[in-house]
């Protein structure tokens, strides 16, 4: 058996997508695939006339069958200090059960990383369906996510609603116009957040008649936008899960908050008051929240908020110099770190970081390192989701002496913990 890695084209996109979804246990129809091409991939399907430079297929040359898939969406990610880096958003990874443990997955990952380097991306990122898969490729855990649930008997907030914020329920057309503006303002000042194209929004909020008008199970979306004066300052969109078409006291369902974003404290307060004021539901769930989200401190009885902590965004270094020079630091200092291991021979070596906090110069040097770590450890401490001390205690980072660890901690300290709520 031999495997050939090739770009995906219009001729094999349906087989490619079927192969992806086979791994995850479903079968997509052609209409769904065409919508994905038009919106998420931002390719005009009707006029698609050349292979994609971001989607790959692994083909078994004996059968000419697609047996592995992968791709890299284009993202910009905000880093400490408010600057952004180009990130390859690794997604669509899968290998057919017939071709497991034959090197297909590794070949796909290596090709995607090589393409990211050629494009000039500083990092690659992904959401892991299986978190054990990716550390061997140099991915480090950059952000944590929490999934929440709370019974509506325990949603009383400790502060009253701020009446300076006006809330308005809107239709999807209005939501698709206003919500991206709010999100873009938010993500530019949120460490770890990514940009979203209009196509991404269209794909994220898509509903067909079956989902929009469903009378049981998950309902269609509801959108509420917050305004301060005439300017939108936040939003929430949510849906319901209920057994019957009409909620009543004997058939209360769940309210599922898909996303809630605000750009100031008053709006945050008003939106939570709105969500907790929705009636005829028994519990509320929220996915992909930040561990340091202030809601825990806003509740009168925070113990009743059930919090499930899991891994969020994983990040891999593509270009260590542009990555390290791309963020701001909160301490003037100079330190040399050694990177090695995890199948990243191209970036192994010693790097001198010299920063005054705002301006940073990074050089690959030959002098002895103060700190020794794997690429994944640097990815993890880079955004500030985990501290150098935590990785040292875990045995991941090795030091020359404790003064070096103290210096590294000061340099990589962040004012704002990272959070990424864009799943891909």
Task: List its salient traits.
single chain; 424 residues; alpha+beta; Aminopeptidase; 3 domains; eight-stranded mixed beta sheet
Descriptive overview:
With 424 residues, the protein is of the alpha+beta class. It has three domains: 3-121, 3-Layer(aba) Sandwich (Aminopeptidase); 147-309, 3-Layer(aba) Sandwich (Aminopeptidase); 320-412, Nonspecific Lipid-transfer Protein, Chain A. It is 27% helix and 31% strand. It has twelve helices and 20 strands. It has helices at 13-24, 30-39, 104-119, 172-187, 198-204, 209-212, 265-277, 295-298, 320-325, 375-382, 388-393, 402-412, and strands at residues 3-7, 55-60, 65-78, 84-95, 123-127, 140-141, 144-151, 166-170, 217-218, 222-228, 231-242, 253-262, 281-289, 306-311, 313-317, 333-339, 349-355, 360-365, 371-373, 398-399. Strands 7, 8, 9, 10, 11, 12, 13 and 14 form an eight-stranded mixed beta sheet that branches. A seven-stranded mixed beta sheet has the order 1-2-3-4-5-15-6. A five-stranded mixed beta sheet has the order 18-17-16-19-20. A hairpin with a 5-residue loop joins β3 and β4. α2 runs antiparallel to α5. The chain is globular and about 70 Å long. The chain starts with a strand and ends in a 12-residue tail after the last helix. The mean pLDDT is 94.
